[in-house]
Design brief:
This protein is of the alpha+beta class. Helices cover 50% and strands 12% of the residues. A three-stranded antiparallel beta sheet has the order 1-3-2. A hairpin with a 2-residue loop joins β2 and β3.
């Protein structure tokens, strides 16, 4: 992941409704959620929801798929994992036990040098 992609992803998540929306989609799993269900659970109007979904989709964090008359939204897990990996790259300068727990336990071959 490049820095500009990380900035775009973090920028898309830097809003209360979008962060809640993304976390909801992560929890929903591969089945995703229909737009109407998302709006109902978040308590946001459809027009606002559409704006927030567009922001997340343009950042590559959310995928959409039409199923009959519904549009299903899913978290883009590979993009999410790439963002987390980018943020954790070279965690604790590669120290085996730096006190941050499982977040830093990526295999050595996945870590990149600075």
């Amino acid at each position: 992941m490049q820095a500009d992609s990380a900035v775009a992803s973090l920028g898309a998540l830097a809003q209360e409704h979008r962060l809640a929306l993304f976390r909801m989609l992560v929890q929903a799993g591969e089945g995703g959620m229909a737009a109407g269900m998302i709006a109902e659970k978040l308590g946001v109007p459809n027009s606002s929801l559409s704006f927030h979904l567009t922001q997340l989709r343009e950042a590559g964090l959310v995928l959409q798929e039409r199923q009959h008359r519904s549009i299903i939204y899913r978290a883009n897990y590979p993009a999410m994992n790439a963002l987390v990996a980018y943020l954790m790259e070279n965690c604790c300068a590669g120290a085996a036990d730096c006190g941050v727990g499982a977040a830093c336990e990526a295999p050595a071959q996945e870590r990149k040098s600075a």
